[in-house]
Amino acid sequence: MFKLLNGPQTLGESRVFWISFLLVVSVAMLYPAAADAYDVGNVAYLLTWTFMAMGLCLVWGYGGMLSFGQTLFFGVAGYAYAVVATNFGGDAGTTFLALIIALLLACTVAAVLGYFMIWGRVNGVFFGIVTLSATLVLSFFLGQTAGPEWRIGSARLNGFNGMKDMPALNVPWAGGEPLTFEGVPLYYLVLVLVLVVYLGLRVLLNSRFGNVIVAMREDPQRAELLGYDVRKFQLATFVIGSGLAGLSGVLYTSWGQFITPASIGLPAAAMPIIWVAFSGRSDITATLVGSFIVLWVFQVLTVYSQQAALLLMGAMLLCTVIVAPQGFVIGLVQGMRRLMVKGAAPGAPAEGEITA
Amino acid sequence: MTVLLETRQLSKRFGGHAAVSNVDLSVSAGEIHCLIGPNGAGKSTLFKLIVGLHSASSGQVTFQGADVTRHQPFERVKLGMSIKMQAPGVFKELPVRQNLRIALQHHVRPSELTAEEDRLLELLGLTADAARPAGVLAHGQQQWLEIGMALALKPALLLMDEPTAGLSPEETYITGELMKKLNSEGMTVLVVEHDMAFIRQIAQQVTVLHFGEVFARGTIGEVIADARVAEIYLGKTRDH
Questions:
Q1: Which of B78, B93, B105 sits opposite A218 (nearest CB)?
Q2: How far apart are CA A351 and CA A330, in angstroms?
Q3: What is the residue-averaged pLDDT of chain A?
Q4: Which of A235, B23, B101, B169 to pair with A340, CA 20 to 30 A apart?
Q5: Domains in chain B: ranges and CATH
Q6: A352 close contact with B: CB closer than 8 A
Q7: What is the pLDDT of residues A261-280, one digit of tens each?
Q8: Within chain A, how many helices (H) and strands (E) appear?
């Protein structure tokens, strides 16, 4: 299985790449010892969004399905976590039950929506339109749930104000007091999950499954004529990517102990598209690194002006489409590779040759 | 000889137009069967009905004794068909080796994949291009790569729609020799084609379509000797 960490679908397989990877992981593990609690919590917050970015990269970049509605699954899972955790009270690790229920619900919604779209031959731009419509429907619906009648058990949905004060993720711990994932523990939890998801996706993408999903992105009919039921592969890809968006939703809700319809609506739905397009949708590493950088820049700017930050996001999307349609991080890697090939001795890869 | 593929009264209508009408076709195991006819004869429509890309208006398709008329294309492939369409259907952004791997991984164990890829690359003369994106290959090489992908499925029946489209005479000849070699190893081949030189090179049995109906059938010698077939190829039409 470890062999599949490297392969044709993922950039970076050299010794230098993996040494750099270990260095980055080591720095990340030591970071809480050197930074203050606010910054650690902030980085954990930025990392919670990368699951949604990686999920969209899988669905769009590798699977060829532009989903404009990943925040639908983010919202479904976030609200589901809030409702279950509020009702169960969050003692004795029940928040992990809430996490599992939330992820299952997000995957179920993705499976139902995906089934009707994929079996109904909805593809191309229409795939984006339908997924965007679905997320807008959920956002508008949640926005009108301010009345006291909109409650599930003891959890009120609260309309545009959203839900708040649900218990954070926690597990039973020695001494009777549960370990609550806030601050540094949350940072480590999110970091470990990022590593597991990133490495897991690398293995998945370089497996037989990964070969089929890039084939169906290139030419679905040809993939079918090689004996693959493309619809099932598309649905599986969509559900996995949506489940990752759901994981972002749960971690975000647990991090801030609130969730509102604004995190599902149109501006929120556009963000993952920008992160992934800017980074380079055709590679999971580029998406992870690029999205983290974009999120960090966005947050720094938001402190001064949210409008300026949103304008920057729009400008970045335009620049990506015009200057580097394959994404800036991928473009940077390819530029460096060209420079290295130019300076390399005879025997360097020929023009057009693919090397990971 | 065992009948591998059979169509019975197979028809396809588009609105009021009958593209294929009541076609009975029989392909026996081990033969190279060519489907020919002038432009608009319904060859490609019949091909798409056989592989499942069009649904039949009426009639039946059986393959290895099973009724596959309502089967999806991927289900027919799983039963032993392998299909090469007219335009090169390679995955252009993926390396040549990966194109073959996607086809091979169905039935080849992971530990044997590389060796099997190498064997096919050598057969197709693409060893030096293994790491290049398929899209940068010349047109003829792309056609061969797609034939290689079709062969990678180890099919009982290889179906090809105009495999020599866009090829030079030399490339066409090489393709024909490859077909004959595969046939001598036991593979059954059904080819839709209008290049008569290629047909003469490879065909054993020929079915001629005209206006969506079977116009003539027989061995290649019988069909070439049929004056009516020469007539429709010269542009004259039969009375009906």
A1: B93
A2: 17
A3: 91
A4: B101
A5: 3-90+157-233 (3.40.50.300)
A6: yes
A7: 999 999 999 999 999 999 99
A8: 13, 6
The β-bridge partners of B11 are B58
Test the B interface: residue of A203, A217, A226 with most B CBs within 10 Å: A226
Query: Looking at residues B4-31, what average pLDDT do you find?
Result: 93
pLDDT, tens only, A278-329:
999 999 999 999 999 999 999 988 888 888 888 888 888 888 888 888 888 8
Q: How many residues does chain A have?
A: 356
* A144 against A1, higher pLDDT: A144
User: ipTM of this predicted complex?
Assistant: 0.88
Is A205:A57 a contact under the CB 8 Å cutoff?
Answer: no
In the 8-state DSSP scheme, what is residue A166? Answer: P
Residue B85 contacts A, CB cutoff 8 Å: yes
**pLDDT (tens digit per residue) in A44-87:** 999 999 999 999 999 999 999 999 999 999 999 999 999 999 99
What does the alpha-carbon distance between residue B210 and residue B226 come to, in Å, rounded to a whole number?
14
Give the β-pairing of A155-156 and A179-180.
unpaired
d(CA B90, CA B99): 7
Residue B72 has phi, psi (to 5 degrees) of: -70, 160
Residue B72 forms contact with A (CB below 8 Å) = yes
